Amino acid sequence: MMMPAEGTPWTMLFSVNISRGKADREKIIHHQAGRILEISDHVFLRFTATMHSVGRYSCLLNKGDRTFNERIVLLAIIKLSLAPATVIPIDSTARLKAEVSPSYAVAGGTWLSRTGSPLLTDMSSAGTLLTKLPRFTSRDSGTYTCNITVDGRSGKPVYSYTLSVTVSDKDVAQFPNITYGPLYSLAALSLSAVTLPCADISGDYVLLYWWPPDSPDAKPKLIFQFDRWRDSRTQSDFFVELHNHSSVLSGNFSFLLRPELKDAGRYQCEVFRDDQVFAQITVLTVLNGYSTRSSSSIELNCAYAERSQINSVKWSHIQRPKLRLPASAVLGRMIISIDLPLTPVTAGQYACTLKLNNGQTIRYLYTALMPSTEPPCCVSELPHELTTVSLLQPTDGYSPPELSVLLQSLSLLLFLVPVVAVAVGVLLWRRGPCTFPQNVERTLSHYSGEVENIYENPEDLRQSPPQNAVYMDLKLTGETDVYRELDRYDQSCG
Prior knowledge:
Elements: E1 2-3, H1 19-23, E2 28-32, E3 35-39, E4 43-46, E5 55-63, E6 66-75, E7 77-83, E8 87-90, E9 94-101, E10 106-112, E11 128-133, E12 142-150, E13 158-172, E14 178-180, E15 184-189, E16 194-197, E17 205-211, E18 221-227, E19 232-235, E20 240-242, H2 245-249, E21 254-257, E22 265-273, E23 276-293, E24 297-305, E25 310-317, E26 327-330, E27 333-339, E28 348-356, E29 361-368, H3 403-431, H4 458-463, E30 472-476, E31 483-488
Parallel strand pairs: 8-13, 14-23, 15-23
Antiparallel strand pairs: 1-5, 2-3, 3-4, 5-6, 7-9, 9-11, 10-12, 12-13, 16-21, 17-18, 17-22, 18-19, 20-21, 22-23, 23-24, 24-27, 25-28, 26-27, 28-29, 30-31
Keywords: Membrane, Transmembrane, Transmembrane helix
GO molecular function, one term: MHC class II protein binding
């Protein structure tokens, strides 16, 4: 039986009674609609597969009213194709495609290069595995492999198929019909961020060309190229980069540029998709303002490049628009001079405004500030008049204390003086025995490796200490001749 599509009813292909053939061990062969059913020890169904042959096949064995063996096989067909031709022209985009039917049979897969490296594989279409090789050359010739992972239970989950790709020795890709988008005119301040648009399509690779500013006869320079299938890029020394990485992965290209004055000019972005080219031209004017100062003046310069689309350039005073500003102009620059020192009239903001033919305007601002007239920080002015206060005479609003109060304070002071004197005398009398007598000689003995004492017989002195004497036992505290007091006979000095 066969189920050609998901959800459709089963169709009977063969129904054979094999009881007699099996007993006689004969091979049974049946033919029907280009299919051959062969029955021996096993059951085989042979036919030449086409796109109409895809689907599920069921082999059902019945004995009596009981089914004792059933096997279902999913047959999927893969079709490999190569474009634009079997032999690829030089510099064209080779497209390697694997189409699997039914599409639900594919769980995943990838294309491998001739060296075995995985290639970017697009599976946005169900059952289709696509990879591309832009700007194909002889270095890309070889055998490419498509690995397909099937869905469901299978003893062989990954199937590999190969495709041979060769390049032509004579044919070179031609792109005579380039589709151009509308011309864009942009103006930007120097080093500001500028987005250069490209055609709004999903492309395979992109090239960016640049013509120098104000040079109509100059030849274009290829400054950036990017191949999203190989994830490879080539870039000159221009400060330009691809904009919006997530969009780049899907083939939608644009560029981010922070131009200097010399980077103005004409840019052409060419997006290639298969054998088609879509171009977008952007004319970029760059404005660069700067100032120079001398002892007598400030010179404001307004320089600009790519003059072909400029309508006007002028200097003005923001706070006083009617202020007359004499300007001198040279090719690609407008200059004004501000005399020093600044005055309330000449101080303020100055603007150089550039206007394009399409109405877009940009401007450079410069602020001229007058020097500050405020006193330095933390310095205060002295008062105009100083008030002198006599320490001997009372000031206004102050009256001296009465005489009775002064007499009471003096009496208390006279009472405290003798009390303090007596206390000091008692303290000195108590500390008297702790002082060294004048006739006691203190010396340090030389260290000889043993503990020594300045007395010949210290024990005798401990047993009968002399009157009014202080006993000191001096011993070594280290390897130097330093001693310290270990014991005192008179405990009152402790």
